[in-house]
Amino acid sequence: MKLSLSELQKEYRHEPLKFDEALDLKADLMDRYPDEVLDVTPVHINGMVSVEDGGDVLLYTHVSATLTVPSTRSLTPVELPTDFDVTEFYVASQAALTRYEKTDVVLVVEDDVIDVDKAIADNLLLQIPMQVLTKAEQSEDELPEGQDWQVTIEGEAEESDSKTVDPRLAKLKNFFDDSSKDDEQ
After folding, report:
1. Is the sign of the CA dihedral 62, 2, 24, 77 positive or negative?
2. How far is CA 141 from CA 60, 71, 82, 149, 153, in A?
3. Of 45, 27, 46, 29, nearest in space to 126 by CA
4. pLDDT tens-digit readout, 43-102
5. Residue 41 CB neighbour total at 10 angstroms
6. Where exactly are the structural domains of the chain?
C-alpha cells in the first residue's frame, strides 16, 4: 500500500483516511531478511492516516500477524504471534523534524510516496525478540552440549569456569605475591 503525501494533504485534510486491510508481505520480508524470517501469515492492519495542522501526516495502525522465525538455540522454526500498534509521522522536509520530540518516529517522505508496506514490514522485524525458543527449549533445564562444546547463557558462567586456570598461564598466578616479597627486602 503506497500513499501520496500531496494527495493526502489535499483529499484528507478534514477527515482521516481509514483502512482495514490484509497485506501480503511474505515475499518482501523473506527476500530482505532470509535468515530472520522463514514465513509470514497475511498481515492484518487496521488504522488511519490523518493530516496534521502543519501538513504533516500521522499514520496510526494496529498490526497483527504470525511470523515464523528460527530458534536462537537450535534454528528450529518457531511461530511468533505479533499484535502491536504503529504510530509514525511523515513530513515533507528535513526542517519539519524540529517540531517533534526525539522519542517520536518521524520520517521524511522522498518522492512524495509513503510506503506503508515497508513501514509495517520494518516494524514487524522490530517485534522479533533477541531470544526465540521452541516450547521444548523453554521447558528444558539443561542446555545442549557436545564433544568439547556446550551452550552457555551469557552472565551465568559456572564457578568452575572462573576457577580453572589455563595451564600456560599457571606460573603467573602468584606473580604479584612474589613481587611484593621482593619489595619488602
Report:
1. negative
2. 42, 16, 27, 17, 12
3. 29
4. 999 999 988 877 788 899 999 999 999 988 888 899 999 999 999 888 888 777 778 888
5. 17
6. 2-135
